[in-house]
TrEMBL record:
Protein species of origin: Microcosmobacter mediterraneus
Pfam families, per database record: FeS_assembly_P
Protein name (Swiss-Prot/TrEMBL): DUF59 domain-containing protein
InterPro entries xref list: Fe-S_Maturation_MIP18, FSCA_dom_sf, MIP18-like
Residue intervals of the MIP18 family-like domain: 13-85
């Protein structure tokens, strides 16, 4: 048994920082603040699974955005592998946006 404790919380924060560098091409707000990221899971092998959605099923970046998320998260030293799963359940709505995103878009 190893003595190393995986600080998944710190890794989770690093992942969130990376996610905040990825923007929806149609909205000048990052995908995290937009509420497109539903869950970030990290296991003891440093494998990351991200459950995310898109603003709509026919989003113009439906093919490229998940790949960008995977690549950027995989680029973190502590991450072994990253997988993105797209879901539309629940469907994305403006209610999922952070206050910061709503403010940025003049919705508050």
């Amino acid at each position: 048994m190893s003595d190393t404790v995986i600080d998944t919380e710190a890794l989770g924060e690093k992942i969130v920082r990376v996610l905040k560098t990825i923007y929806d091409p149609e909205i000048p707000v990052d995908i995290y603040e937009l509420g497109l990221i539903y869950d970030v899971l990290v296991n003891e092998d440093y494998d990351v699974k991200i459950l995310m959605t898109l603003t709509s099923p026919n989003c113009p970046v439906a093919e490229t955005l998940p790949l960008e998320v995977e690549e950027k998260v995989k680029s973190l030293d502590a991450v072994n592998n990253a997988e993105v799963e797209i879901t539309f359940d629940p469907p994305w709505s403006q209610d999922l946006m952070s206050e910061e995103a709503k403010l940025e878009l003049g919705m508050l």
